[in-house]
Amino acid sequence: MRVPFKILSLAAMVLFWAGCRGHRTIPDDKLREITKEIFLSNAYLGSYQLNRDSVDIYTPIFGKYGYTVEDFRHTLGEFARRKSSRLGDIVKDAHTDLDKQYAQYQRKLAILDTIDILAGERLKRQVLYDSLIRARRIGDTTRLIRTIRAQEGSYKITFYCLVDSLDQNTGQRAIVYLVDSAGHRTVANTQWMARYQRQRKDVSISVPRTTRKLIIDLGSYPPNAQTPLDLTIDSLTVVYYLPREVALDSIVKLLTDYKLLIDGKEYDRLAPDSLPAVAGPPWDRAQHGGNHR
Question: What is the pTM of this model?
């Protein structure tokens, strides 16, 4: 870190403010904390491309520690008059502290991400599996479409595909999309298929609460497709993951067997209309495996 540049940046920042007379000198420990917050505020302004001249974010920082902008300017002036190296040390220490805090936050985020992954994997459910699907005629294309009554959360779709040499069509692709409660098609993912080689395809898709159907079209052949067709899909697997908050709540319930408290009343088990909070995916067992079309 180039400390002189940081010092000049801090000094230049306060030149826009009025002069000072009879103001207090800020102690080193408070000055270090103020400097850290100034660094963070400048970074925030830069990230959002805000105009520093139109946004006064510095006055509240000084006020938080019981000082004013004029006090800060006065303190910098004292350092300049004494030609003290302490200002460089203070700025360097503030930067070092921020680096340490950033590393701590990164570790905490990594731990939280790991917890999320473990909770999701612990409670995931396979909702569809098909070992082999072949399309050789136009009538077979209906077998390439899978419709699943979707639940809020996310789905991971995995399959292998092979377009062989006999297929007279080009541009084969798998399309995964959602249909909301109004019947509108939303969020599409397209996987193009190469010819003459078996490929693995992986699709992860997040499903909002308004979604009603998850559609998987494994061929997307047009109505005027040329015959013969020669498409093979194998090992189609669809895995459902609970929403993050529900997964975390559910894993806690599984590990601690706590009693749920709602409006002052304890519940050992939840009623069917409270399914989003139970441990496990909130699907209708009658729909397990999805609706095939």
Answer: 0.54
